[in-house]
Design a protein that fits this description.
Largest sheet: none
Radius of gyration: 27 Å
Number of helices: 11
Helix content: 55-70%
Order of helices and strands: HHHHHHHHHHH
Shape: elongated
Length: 217
């Protein structure tokens, strides 16, 4: 009776499964050669290859519940806007308007935990003649930026956690920074105090600068 080397067969299966992995599920970079680990980030491709096809497909899909868990506050509004970016089944930019992003500027980006975009927006607002234009542009593209940000974060969470932990981790990862409105309120009050102090000081400061008229000497 012929004997079969089960160890060799299992290794062959792993290798063939690994050959089907074209992109790393962790960093998204292309995998050009068969390897147990991603050459870019070191993530285990063998673990991903041993998962069932249905498990892998579920990791690469984002559903409405995922977005709702990640967005948190005002999820209903954002779900309505997000659907516009995937109306044909493929992601595509669609012009929308977000009043909170327009009024809040980079503060809204901080509130929604998009730190890199907040830094970029802040820098643009410091550039003469581009400040208001960038503020206006943010109101038009904010929903799409948030959609892409949320989707990328959700896929990251799905790739690193078991399905029964995804919702809890998304709630912790997403949501909002509640300190931002408090900081914005304090900052606004300080600006008002400084403005009122300037209005009170300016007439007396100008009077002293010009000098006291001789008739008062």
């Amino acid at each position: 009776m012929p004997e079969f080397n089960t160890a060799d067969n299992s290794e062959t299966k792993k290798e063939s499964a690994a050959e089907n992995i074209k992109f790393c599920p962790e960093c998204g970079k292309e995998v050009t050669q068969v390897s147990k680990f991603c050459p870019n980030c070191g993530h285990s491709l063998e673990l991903f290859a041993n998962q069932s096809k249905s498990d892998r497909e579920s990791q690469l899909q984002v559903d409405e519940d995922d977005f709702t868990a990640f967005v948190g506050n005002n999820a209903g509004y954002y779900m309505h806007e997000f659907k516009k970016f995937n109306a044909t089944g493929m992601d595509a930019f669609s012009l929308t308007w977000n009043w909170m992003a327009f009024l809040g500027g980079f503060g809204w980006l901080l509130y929604r935990k998009m730190y890199l975009w907040a830094l970029i927006s802040f820098c643009f607002m410091l550039i003469p003649y581009l400040g208001f234009a960038s503020w206006l542009a943010l109101g038009a593209v904010a929903n799409y930026l948030y959609y892409q940000h949320a989707k990328r974060k959700i896929l990251d969470v799905r790739a690193l956690h078991q399905s029964d932990q995804v919702s809890m981790v998304l709630t912790q990862t997403g949501g909002v920074n509640r300190w931002v409105p408090i900081a914005a309120t304090i900052f606004t009050v300080l600006l008002l105090v400084l403005f009122m102090a300037f209005l009170f000081w300016f007439p007396f400061g100008l009077f002293n600068f010009l000098g006291t008229p001789s008739k008062y000497i």
